[in-house]
Amino acid sequence: MRPLVLVFTAIASAALPATLSARRCGEHRATALLVYTTAANIIERPDGVKIA
């Protein structure tokens, strides 16, 4: 399970700056997609939040 958390952390850490940059340029869909994907992952697998 731990490698999955590390992969998710790496993806999230790369996605956050890209999302902030897109939001600054007026792309709000990218921000909504990141928030939706993160929420869906937390709801589907809440044990990842406990591990983190």
Question: What labels would you give this structure?
Answer:
single chain; 52 residues; mainly alpha; 3 helices; elongated
Which SSEs are present, and which pair or pack?
Elements: H1 2-24, H2 28-44, H3 47-51
Helix pairs in contact: 1-2
Q: Shape from CA axes?
A: elongated
Estimated share of beta-strand residues:
under 5%
Structural class estimated from helices and strands: mainly alpha
Number of H- or I-type helical stretches: 3
| N-end to C-end Cα span | 11 Å
Largest sheet: none
Average pLDDT confidence is 76
Write down the secondary-structure element order.
Answer: HHH
Instruction: Report low-confidence residues grouped into runs of 5 or more.
Output: none
Radius of gyration: 12 Å
Q: How many beta strands in the DSSP annotation?
A: 0
Summarize the structure.
This protein is mainly α and 52 residues long. It has helices at 2-24, 28-44, 47-51.
Written description of the protein model:
It is a single chain. The protein is mainly α and 52 residues long. The protein is 87% helix and 0% strand. The protein has three helices and no strands. The longest helix has 23 residues, at 2-24. It is elongated. The protein has a domain at 17-44. The termini are close together. Helix 1 runs antiparallel to helix 2.
